[in-house]
Write a structure and sequence with these properties.
Number of strands: 10
Shape: elongated
Bound molecules: zinc ion
Number of helices: 7
Order of helices and strands: HEHEEEEEEEHHHHHEE
Largest sheet: 4 strands, antiparallel
Structural class: alpha+beta
Low-confidence stretches: none
């Protein structure tokens, strides 16, 4: 599932390539991928120009002329790919945005079809449920705010970090990586963590997200950027997907446990359930 770094890489790629471009035609091949009325998309978007492409949590926001914004959530296997119009359509291509004055298309692909697109009025964006409920951005929140905001919660730290209303953008990979770096067991309660531990976690989250963005994100199976390229950061995972291998720090064997529905990777020696 694309998390903050992967979505950021898609956004940056699209920003440089389609900002200022105008939409000529929208073809909806799978109507149920569109929230609200698919007709709205096909009828209202042609003639609109992309003004800005940005990210909020894992959500892609494309601001268009005429006061409209297009929201895209990639969820599990969604991809936004820029293609030449004459390139054959890949399987699972559900939406095609034909750009004017050129031979390019932005295509939405989604094998498992959990992703969605929706057109909204830009002025209503901040009150849109998918936007309004999102917690702070992990790359923007200060250490002090993070300690106050996260340290006040009584929930277990991993489910809390995955809760998009608490912090927007983390998923399973980067939560595991950050908790490992900060030497925190995923089942510890946030409110039981010391200020030093919380500040260490804030730093670990920011470090791992920035490093992942610099490596074009992680590709475990489906993720591709807007030019169809996989990410590289999976090669630098220190804990995620490394069960059975030795911990780089202490040599103990990395184990995979379950936390809620999430397969969770920890070093049992570096991340102890007891103590702080
Ligand atoms: Zn270890």
């Amino acid at each position: 599932m694309p998390e903050l770094p992967e979505v950021e890489c898609v956004v940056r790629g699209l920003r440089t390539r389609i900002t200022g471009k105008t939409l000529q035609r929208v073809t909806v091949r799978l109507p149920r991928i569109v929230l609200g009325s698919p007709l709205d998309l096909a009828e209202n978007l042609p003639g609109c120009t992309f003004l800005a492409i940005r990210r909020r949590g894992k959500l892609i926001i494309m601001d268009l002329s005429q006061g409209l914004s297009l929201l895209v959530h990639l969820r599990m296997t969604g991809q936004l790919l820029l293609s030449d119009s004459n390139e054959p359509l890949l399987k699972h291509t559900h939406l095609i945005f034909q750009l004017a004055n050129g031979n390019h298309q932005l295509r939405y692909r989604d094998q498992r079809q959990f992703g969605w697109l929706q057109i909204v009025e830009t002025a209503q964006l901040e009150t849109h449920p998918q936007v309004a409920q999102l917690g702070p951005e992990p790359l923007e929140i200060s250490p002090e705010e993070f300690v106050r905001h996260i340290g006040a919660r009584h929930r277990q730290i991993k489910p809390l970090l995955l809760d998009q209303t608490a912090l927007a953008g983390l998923g399973n990979i980067y939560t595991d990586e950050a908790l490992y770096r900060a030497r925190i067991h995923p089942l510890k309660r946030a409110s039981d963590l010391s200020t030093i531990k919380l500040k260490g976690l804030h730093q670990a989250i920011q470090d791992v997200l920035r490093e992942a963005i610099d490596c074009s994100g992680s590709t475990i199976d489906h993720f591709r950027d807007s030019q169809g390229r996989p990410g590289e950061f999976q090669r630098f995972h220190q804990i995620y997907g490394r069960q059975g291998e030795p911990c780089d720090r202490c040599g103990a064997r990395i184990v995979k446990i379950r936390v809620g529905n999430w397969g969770t990777h920890i070093c049992p020696r570096c991340q102890r359930a007891s103590g702080v």
